[in-house]
Specification:
213 residues, alpha+beta, five-stranded antiparallel sheet, 6 helices
């Protein structure tokens, strides 16, 4: 199972939402949440046990995330002298919600545009496309439901410097010199825990459904 990156998603055009930083929004929506860093994550599919994978998270003595391993490859977090994240090296890519939480066959979180946020500032409806010769031919939507718990990956992402990077992204400007990948990552950052994902075709018919427990 490939560990996809929060960085490898394309520009979501025309967003005029959240002006606060990712950290401010997380605190506003969730209040004070005890910091718990993930050390091991076991993922199992109820439909296909062979798709299971174990992720191991390693930290230094200062609780800074150093790497994530899935047993086949390692994503290495690279920092500068100031402790700021500068790169994630290695063949694997960490912490994509759709790949890790939902294990779904679609790429809405990579190529989707956010159409709607819920009252907790979570992306709730995402539009994405099926391509033919690099041209979008069919439009799908992914509708995401969340439970009342906070995003369990948030503090681990913070320990890896990802949240600090996203804190500097301003979604009020649709045309700006910011990295398109980071703008999309910021737009798709959930503040609550994703629990269900429903894919619909262009006629509103359900074509795939995922329930994450």
């Amino acid at each position: 199972m490939k560990i996809k990156s929060i960085f490898l998603i394309v520009l979501c055009l025309g967003l005029f939402g959240c002006s606060d930083s990712a950290s401010d929004e997380f605190e506003e929506i969730n209040g004070e949440v005890s910091e718990k860093l993930i050390s091991k994550l076991t993922l199992a599919s109820a439909e296909d046990p062979s798709e299971g994978v174990i992720l191991n998270f390693s930290y230094d003595i200062n609780k800074k995330l150093i790497n994530i391993s899935d047993g086949e490859g390692v994503a290495i977090f690279v920092y500068n002298n100031n402790g700021d994240l500068t790169n994630i090296a290695g063949g694997n890519e960490p912490l994509n919600v759709e790949e890790i939480v939902f294990n779904s066959p679609y790429n809405a979180f990579e190529e989707g545009n956010v159409l709607q946020y819920d009252n907790n500032l979570n992306p709730s409806i995402i539009e994405f496309y099926e391509y033919n010769d690099d041209e979008p031919t069919v439009t799908y939507t992914a509708e995401i439901d969340y439970d009342s718990a906070h995003n369990p990956y948030f503090h681990t992402m913070k320990a890896g410097g990802v949240i600090s990077v996203l804190d500097d992204i301003n979604l009020e400007f649709s045309i700006n010199p910011q990295s398109p990948d980071l703008v999309q990552a910021r737009a798709l950052l959930p503040l609550k825990n994703p629990s269900q994902l429903t894919y619909k075709d262009e006629n509103g018919n359900i074509i795939f459904y995922v329930d994450a427990n």
